[in-house]
Amino acid sequence: AGSKLREVFDKINNLLSGKPVQTEGQTVAVTQHPQGLEFVCYKLAEKFVKHGEGEVSFHRDSAFPIAVVLSGIWELHPRVGDIFLAHLHKKCPYSVPFYPARKEGTSMEEYQRMLGYEVHDSKVEEQDHFLKRMSGVIRLYAAIIQLQWPYGNKQGAHPHGLSYGWRWLAQMLNLEPLADVTAMLLLDFLEVCGNALMKQYGIQFWKTMFFIQKSYIPRIEAVTSSGQMGCLSRLKNFVQKCLQEQEIPLPKGILTPSFWRT
């Protein structure tokens, strides 16, 4: 509910503003320790990325309520946004976007960590789990760049708005595609913020969609094995349908004005 989201936002904002906050039966304030504020900013930013990896990867619609709270906190407390991006890029280099190359002397285990895989006791997580986490993180990022907290006093410019999404898309299409990963990331990104990008960039956006269909999807196909075609097929169908209808559907779970009355 919208009212519940406001409670969450107010509590986080109060904590970061140095006010005492009740939690788990005790009162805490960042002023209780010289590094209190820095610690809270760090842990909070880390927590938002973990929500992407966990909550959003399993419940896709949850990207929007989480994103709108972070967007509002980012506007009032820019430090949280900076640290969030640092956590995001470390956990998911594709959010930069960047495909790390393996340097000489780097162990396979360390390289897999650089690619975003979780490695525990030399055991690498399964590909399906990895893709699901990366999908959740990108969907959260794509939601953040288009949402602003509706109750801000200043309602200034978005601290990390759609222009960053436009840049992400352009940079993504300049990279050589990776099997599995690239098709999934593009589909997730376009499903969540394609509608917003279409409204903002108009004809330039449709030129990009045409480029994806004619030039970039064949390049993804060239590096994709027959067993990895699922996501690529969904991306092809999505882009084709959008181009045919000259319309990108609104993402599922977007917060409507009526949500804030609940």
Brief summary:
This protein is mostly helical and 262 residues long.
Topology:
Elements lengths: L1 H15 L4 E3 L2 E3 L7 H23 L4 H14 L1 H14 L16 H7 L4 E2 L2 E2 L2 H18 L17 H11 L8 H42 L6 H17 L17
Antiparallel strand pairs: 1-2, 3-4
Helix pairs in contact: 1-3, 2-4, 2-6, 3-4, 3-6, 6-8, 7-8, 8-9
Kindly describe this structure.
The chain is mainly alpha-helical and 262 residues long. Helices cover 61% and strands 4% of the residues. The termini are close together. The longest helix has 42 residues, at 181-222. The strands form two sheets. A two-stranded antiparallel ribbon has the order 1-2. The model has no long low-confidence stretch (mean pLDDT 91). It has nine helices and four strands. The chain has helices at residues 2-16, 36-58, 63-76, 78-91, 108-114, 127-144, 162-172, 181-222, 229-245; strands at 21-23, 26-28, 119-120, 123-124. A hairpin with a 2-residue loop joins strand 1 and strand 2 (26-28). It has a single domain (1-261), classed as GLE1-like (Serine Threonine Protein Phosphatase 5, Tetratricopeptide repeat, Alpha Horseshoe), CATH 1.25.40.
Q: List the strand order in the largest sheet.
A: 1-2
Domain count, please report it.
1
Mean pLDDT: 91
Give me the oligomer status: single chain
The name of the CATH architecture is Alpha Horseshoe
Terminal Cα separation, in Å?
5 Å
According to CATH, the fold-level topology is Serine Threonine Protein Phosphatase 5, Tetratricopeptide repeat
Query: Over all CA atoms, what is the radius of gyration?
Result: 20 Å
In N-to-C order, the SSE pattern is HEEHHHHEEHHHH
User: What are the low-pLDDT stretches, counting only 5+ consecutive residues below 50?
Assistant: none
Overall shape: it is: globular
Q: Which CATH top level class fits? A: Mainly Alpha
What is the count of DSSP helices, taking H or I runs of 4+ residues?
9
What is the number of beta strands? 4
Biggest β-sheet description: 2 strands, antiparallel
Q: Kindly report the name of the CATH homologous superfamily.
A: GLE1-like
Subcellular location: Cytoplasm; Nucleus, Nuclear pore complex
Protein name: mRNA export factor GLE1
Pfam families: GLE1 (PF07817)
Main location: cytoplasm
